[in-house]
Amino acid sequence: MTTTRTTHPRLAPRRAGGRQPWWAKAWTRAVEEAAFAERDLRAGQRLARAGQVGGITVGAGSVLAAVREDDDAWTVTVEVPVLADADRDALVDVVAAESGRVAALLAGDLPHRLVEDAEELGVELLPYGGEFAATCTCPHALDPCAHALAVLVQVGWLVADDPLVLLALRGLDRETLLARLHARTGGAGDGPGGDAPAGEDPDALDVAADAALRAARLLREIEAGRVPESW
Which residues pair with 183 in a beta bridge? Predict the structure, then answer.
């Protein structure tokens, strides 16, 4: 498996509340399940909302970020299980199974039916609390500490804006997904494994992906009462 790591710029402070897509709510529940103590969870949420997490590097099965608290800075690493090879193949099959799923993912949406179909094949895309293995350079006795929880909260923001971050964490990054779908297009007519997603043109989708994703993010920011400085 080729590992692609992407560093996302530091996220701006946010107020509590705001609308979350359904898959982001599932991520939030997993973070809450992972916390050993309510005080650690609340402290992590405060650090995240105050913008104290630096740039977040996401790779297959891993997250890396620094968190500042007062005059100290701590390094956090979180590991998430990646999908087995067969499960990644099955997930690509699920994405390709229905017209519109690729476009939805590229536009920042995660169809509920896609996740359900994957689960029917035994592929668990959304994490649960026990899957997060966190370490931090701070002296806290238990993990996840507040710093790790702050990172997980902000990863939830990334996942909310772009569900492909979730796929990347599970070992199927955007480039690999599109490459596999492109390969299906090249093999169309060679059998079930070579069928392209019905009605999809992967080349055209790839060109439009960034614009669609930015538009979806802007809409969610407006709905939440936030206007990103970069727009």
Answer: none
Give the pLDDT of the chain (231 residues) as one tens digit per residue: 556 899 999 999 998 877 899 999 999 999 999 999 999 999 999 999 999 999 999 999 999 999 999 999 999 999 999 999 999 999 999 999 988 999 999 999 999 999 999 999 999 999 999 999 999 999 998 899 999 999 999 999 999 999 999 999 999 999 999 998 888 766 443 333 444 444 455 455 555 455 555 555 555 555 555 554 444
What is the C-alpha separation between 119 and 115, in angstroms, rounded?
6
Q: How far apart are CA 48 and CA 65, in angstroms?
A: 12
Return the ∠ at Cα 4 (arms to 182 and 52), rounded to 5°: 130
Across the beta sheet with 56-59, what order do the strands follow? 6-8, 56-59, 62-69, 72-79, 133-136
pTM of the model: 0.81
Sign of CA dihedral 14, 105, 83, 7: negative
Give the CA distances from residue 54 to residues 12, 35, 138, 188, in Å, rounded to whole numbers and listed in that order: 10, 21, 16, 44
